[in-house]
# Entry
Amino acid sequence: MNLKKTASILLIVVIIAFIGFIPESEACTRVVYKGPNNTIMTGRSMDFKTEIPANLWVFPKGMKRNGEVGKNSVEWVSKYGSVAVSSWDIATSDGMNEKGLVANLLWLNETKYPEFEKDGNKRGMSVSLWAQYALDNFATVAEAVADLEKESFVVASDVIPGTDRFVTVYLSLSDPTGDNAILEYINGQLNIHHDP
# Structure
């Protein structure tokens, strides 16, 4: 055997051995690849504690929607069509709209949303619709950030169906220009990390 082939086989054996020692993860991971010729790809893992039932949804533009938190829900009509991955058939956890905006919900234990008052002055939106709201309304990350930083509604959360685990996720956005944003609620305050 030649030296190059032996080195390749040894490298494969080391990689396989290393994979066997990686501890089980309980976190999701997101990556944005910026390649040659303006190639931008967003990918994410679903390293969640339990299996998440998922389906693929296709939504046309022009859909009337509301935040699904009762009479004080925010309302909108979708400007863009999208393809989304559902979680438990109630939430858009990942998706991309016709303009190439990508939205992902990822787990963050430290998340603490502001209190939503059903009869308060501020409208509300279920956390299950947060990513879909972005896909329905924005063509770019910059456009989404400019609107969402106004906090015109409160993100309201609940437990995962069939469990006692409260949903604590953040929203990540990317677009075909390579722009990115992370929107997270820590101690009830919206923190936005916006940078390509």
Notes: The chain has three helices and 13 strands.
